[in-house]
Amino acid sequence: MAITERSNGQQARGQPDQAARPPEGGPAADGPGPGPERPPGPRSLGEMLADPTIRRWLQRGVVALLVLAVVWVAAGLELGVAAAVLVVVGDVVRRSRTASSVEAWQKASAVERKTERQLKALEKNGYRVLHARAVPRDDEGVSDGRIDHLVIGPSGVYAIDSEAWDKRLPVRTLSHRKLFHGPFNKKERLDETHWEAQLASKIISDRVGFEVPVQGSVAIYGPSIPWKVMRVRDVDVYAGNRARGYLRRRPRVLTVTDVERIFQAAEESLPPKYPDSD
User: Fold this and answer.
1) Please, what are the domains in the chain?
2) Beta strands 146-153 and 156-164, pairing class
């Protein structure tokens, strides 16, 4: 069932709960000064397993070990190792081709600019935006993830990914748990968006000293989207040209001081993925 936004400014059914407000005496009362920082700790096993990239490589490793064992018994160690390597390489190539065959990757920068133009129009309403921000995945700041647009405003904090998909393939959902683009299940794409939003939330929260929820979302350009906003696997999904409306119709939950403090924390703790990205 599609989730539609209400034009009267009330929160739509199924939309995220209001972002957690700082406790009394928190940032709104204390002013925009920096909050206490928490020293980064080692990643737990659960956090590592929640990383979609790590999960993919673990799955490849398990399959490769099984292939190695079977071929080793049947034809020897050398052929077993070769078969295991081919399995890993073949899966990497397959995933790459699957994504590029249905997603107009060469238009990615163009759709990001479209979303950027929409978000720029919200600046007069008190929104701050950071573009192409890396999400550090360890204490050394190493990251292969990226949030296309991190939006901080009166209605909360949002991690928006702009996606260019093949307009010839329909987009559909199943029970708010599955998203399909034609025959392709977009589970991994949604899980990565959600995971990066949760990680950004943790990083920013540690920096400011209070909880800052970050809602992940995907703005899709190309195919027709038969709903206004749909939550699938905890990620909001909508047509790319609705990005501004998606943010504008939500209730105010942050003060001007909150917005500025969170923006400064995000700017300091989430480095630009590319030089001059903002």
Assistant:
1) 45-102 (no CATH), 104-269 (3.40.1350)
2) antiparallel
